Amino acid sequence: MSQAYIDSTGASRGSLTSYVTGFVLSLILTAIPFALVMSGTWSSSAILVGIFSAGIVQILVHLYFFLHLDRSSDASWNVLALIFTVLIMVLFVGGSIWIMFNLYHRMM
Question: What is the mean pLDDT of residues 62-80?
Fold first, then answer.
């Protein structure tokens, strides 16, 4: 299990070291926002920027180390499916916010 390989379905499998690296990075990126909030030395806006930055980096770490989405040709269909999923989620969330905003103004 130490070497990465591609099975018959085209999905790549990671090695144990890649999973451990992803896990350690995820722990560090989870601890950073806790440390920012608990220290209390930074301003509120700087803490929010730090939390959102750590969250975005953690999403990228999960996509690369656990879901194996990278720029290889083997993962192109998975990346396309991810982009489609994000588009659908943006449409659902954006449409829901738009509907709620419109209803709020019509009720007031």
Answer: 81
